[in-house]
Design brief:
The structure is a homodimer. Chain A is an alpha/beta fold. The first copy, chain A, has 12 helices and 12 strands. The structure holds a DNA duplex.
DNA sequence: CCCATCTTGTGAACCGTTTCAGTGATGCGA
DNA sequence: TCGCATCACTGAAACGGTTCACAAGATGGG
């Protein structure tokens, strides 16, 4: 009970042992292994001894002493969103190419959780934080941004190291104008649950644009997960008022497809559906999901570039604005009246 | 250049300051905050002082001193696989409910990367590791399993803390018998790239079962990502020999759908497709993907339970075997000859 | 009333690095 | 030959906790 097998693992070599083996001081070894301040010759000697003993620096001790880790924290608002999953994968890959690695955490759509995880990540001494915030308006971000470089993805949170912001105004306009052009007037808008809905930029834009365009929209929150989104979509579809459903995430749109199928409704003959993201799966569905393309690759590249620069010490803070494109497939139909 | 804003963050309160504030020794404070060895009264006093000063223990220092962190590492073979993404999300949620939190890392299908990350995670002093290995046969696992409790998901790696193994034999049989029953004889099998293919249990079973059933199969490796899988699928479909494609992952099957659409081929009229996983999206496609259901929820629950028990010190190692179910949708068609 | 036992709490060592302030050599120009 | 940098390296102090061995006072049993 007291001791388990995995606690008894043989002790790792420490820097002291390497020092002893080479007859140097621990400090010298520390420098040597990082290619600092020592002669070529001792550097070689130290390397050899380290290899011999199988020594590798302990990242925890190193983090404590130096305050650096080489890791980048990636905090996702909700990994249930397939698009955020793609983002995480892309960023993970991108950072890898920069010889850094990402620690991925999932706030599961909960602003409270988001705070805890963000602080935890900072306490882990990550060199930087890439965030797609659930609640960009939360006050704790300000403190956090002061203690670690932050690259924010989305809208509403000014990151200290850079931001990749979506021009949600254009995105929403693109979507709503498209729907209007095809004759839709009464539209249900499904927005991700999580942050306080009224404050979210995308929602604000949606209301404003609907007013401007003379559209009658009704906003309802929906979770990203397929089952959860389907549930919400069921209710939305039961109320036959709307001719179209505009989802602020492709993942949510998938839920609408599922609910429509359950009820025997055809997309787009009985109800039109629009997404927001352009996740790769959206092209595979039948009909293909008409959606707003945010150029995932571009976002990933920008975020990785900004973060790598900041973590390496570049002080410049940059703001990259992503412009959306309409990706027309088959899920929105022209209606007569 | 030398100092950045985020390095100048105000210093956090340390345990010494709390000690000073309460007139106790640091040791006493340490004990008090963990509810150990001290009187109720001082405990209260310490808590108050800690709250007052906004003190929170530094996880890095704590990890260095105690060797524990409370975190669970989750190492995914490839997050490009939508099913593994779902797994990660589920486990992340499940652990949260157990008041632990997961550090997710992605080996991006690279066995070498997998080794590095696994060791990095151990060096981070995670209390446990949940792994879905790219290469279960890699020798480094043995060492790793000795230094940290490991829960392995999949097949072929005996975890020290527990395993959730898929009965791949049954799964493969289920799939191939289904295809045979519907008249298919020449079948392409798409297996995930990554580990050395010939050794992988699923592939071995596939060959054996094909022999037993008198089927003519051809195995080709394919990446999980939609674009990559589509590329491979293009070639497979160009060769019209096969009447069906059996993919060892739903994600890969999606690539086959995409390639078929490109070529104007109908699923299942021109080619039948089978998956392996039952990802939620599979039911949304047209036609629905016929696949082998591994009961994601059950796997998540089992993995979380095993890991939580092991991390809390339960010494028992358990083995949970997952039985597959055939989930028949519309992507496999009966053929005459 | 004395010895044994708990209960609380203390001091110091320790975890494994990094980093700061020196310290002898050595090289070099004058 | 005398200063003066420069180079290569060292000792010791952080970093911020945990934990071990021990001590002083309270408690209790005989």
């Amino acid at each position: 009970m007291a001791e388990y097998a995995w606690r008894m693992a043989r002790k790792r070599a420490t820097i002291k042992e390497v020092a002893q083996a080479t007859g140097l001081s621990p400090a010298a070894v520390s420098y040597a292994l990082r290619g600092l301040q020592v002669s070529e010759e001792t550097m070689e000697r130290v390397r050899a001894a380290a290899a011999e003993l199988g020594y590798e620096a302990d990242p925890i001790a190193r983090a404590l002493a130096s305050g650096r880790t080489g890791m980048i924290g990636l905090l996702c608002g909700s990994l249930e969103d397939l698009w955020q999953q793609s983002l995480a994968v892309g960023i993970s890959r991108g950072l890898r190419e920069k010889d850094r690695y990402a620690l991925i955490l999932d706030a599961v759509g909960d602003p409270g959780r988001e705070r805890v995880l963000a602080q935890q990540l900072r306490d882990q001494r990550v060199d930087g934080l890439i965030v797609q915030p659930v609640d960009p308006a939360a006050p704790f971000w300000a403190d956090l941004c002061e203690s670690v470089p932050v690259v924010a993805i989305g809208d509403g949170l000014p990151g200290t190291a850079g931001e990749v912001v979506f021009d949600n105004r254009s995105g929403v306009t693109l979507a709503l104008e498209h729907l209007k052009r095809l004759g839709h007037r009464r539209i249900a808008v499904l927005t991700p649950t999580g942050a306080r809905t009224p404050d979210r930029p995308a929602d604000v834009h949606a209301s404003a644009e609907a007013d401007r365009l003379g559209l009658d929209i009704e906003v309802a929150p929906a979770p990203y997960g397929l089952t959860g989104a389907t549930e919400v979509a069921r209710e939305v579809l039961a109320d036959k008022r709307h001719t179209a459903v505009f989802c602020f995430s492709d993942s949510i749109a998938y839920g609408v497809y599922a609910a429509a199928a359950e009820r025997g409704l055809s997309v787009p003959d009985d109800v039109s559906v629009m997404g927001y993201d352009d996740h790769p799966m959206s092209g595979l569905l039948t009909p293909g999901l008409t959606t707003v393309d945010w150029n995932l690759d571009g976002i990933v590249r920008a975020a990785v570039r900004l973060m790598a620069a900041a973590a390496d010490g570049a002080a410049r803070r940059r703001r990259v604005v992503q412009q959306p494109t309409l990706r027309e497939r088959g899920s929105v139909r022209r209606i007569s009246r």
